[in-house]
Specification:
The complex is a heterodimer of chains A (112) and B (112). Chain A is mainly beta and 112 residues long. Chain A is built from no helices and 11 strands. In chain A, the strands form 2 sheets. In chain A, strands 2, 4, 5, 9, 10 and 11 form a 6-stranded mixed sheet that branches. In chain A, strands 1-3-8-7-6 form a 5-stranded antiparallel sheet, with no helix packed on it. The radius of gyration of chain A is 14 Å and the shape is globular. The termini of chain A are far apart. Chain B has no helices and 11 strands. In chain B, the strands form 2 sheets. In chain B, strands 2, 4, 5, 6, 9, 10 and 11 form a 7-stranded mixed sheet that branches. In chain B, a hairpin with a 7-residue loop joins strand 9 and strand 10. Classes of the chains: A mainly beta (112), B mainly beta (112). At the A-B interface, strand 4, strand 5 and strand 9 of A face strand 5, strand 9 and strand 10 of B.
């Protein structure tokens, strides 16, 4: 079983729809990251959070530490949101700096 | 502002040939530096990280090596490439003591 599971693996939405991507993890963490990988391959860090909720523009990330679960929401989705969204966690115990545990990503396609 | 550059963007190399991927960071001092690999259909995997000049930690035993000859320069090398070295390689940096990662544009390596 992977330590970080994302769902769905693939998601197709119509422009304007509200989108939710889920991430569940099985280890104790100190932080959770949401990353966006564009078709060209470049990765951008969207959020780093350890509790509660963060908002940036149309993106909202929430985390429930007790349930070991995080969600990434996109409001009023747009074709330019089409990308792979990756959840990654930093474990509490040991591990090297930068050794995040990555999910396999959710591929989002927003149709006009 | 801080920027990270990685090159080459695309590389096609024969089996047994050497490899050198270079990454430089601008606008910050003493960053933590990382090399990740993303194989097809798999999550990101940490290969090497460095907290200072000449200080390299390897996460996964393999055919690759890394060096940090200068504070803001990180190089990924191989003496003889294997087919299994094909993938997408990403350099990243973070401020020491923080978790947020900033990624380069990536280098796509195909070994034939």
């Amino acid at each position: 079983k992977n330590e970080v599971e994302q769902s769905p693996q693939n998601l197709t939405a119509q422009e304007g729809e509200f989108i939710t991507i889920n991430c569940s993890y099985s280890v104790g963490i100190s932080a959770l990251h949401w990353l966006q990988q564009h078709p060209g391959g470049g990765i951008v860090s969207l959020f780093m959070l350890s509790s509660g909720k963060k908002k940036h523009g149309r993106l909202i990330a929430t985390i429930n530490i007790q349930e070991k679960h995080s969600s990434l929401h996109i409001t009023a989705s747009h074709p330019r949101d089409s990308a792979v969204y990756i959840c990654a966690v930093r474990g509490i115990y040991g591990g090297s700096q930068g050794n995040l545990i990555f999910g396999k990503g959710t591929k989002l396609s927003v149709k006009p | 502002s801080q920027t990270i550059h990685q090159w080459p963007a695309t590389l096609v190399q024969p089996v047994g040939s050497p490899l050198s991927l270079e990454c430089t960071v601008e606008g910050t001092s003493n960053p933590n530096l990382y090399w990740y690999r993303q194989a097809a259909g798999r999550g990101l995997q940490l290969l090497f990280y460095s907290v200072g000049i000449g200080q390299i930690s390897s996460e996964v035993p393999q055919n690759l090596s890394a060096s940090r000859p200068q504070d803001r320069q990180f190089i990924l090398s191989s003496k003889k490439l294997l087919l299994s070295d094909s993938g997408f390689y990403l350099c990243a940096w973070s401020y020491p003591g923080t978790g947020e990662l900033f990624f380069g544009e990536g280098s796509r390596l195909t070994v034939l």
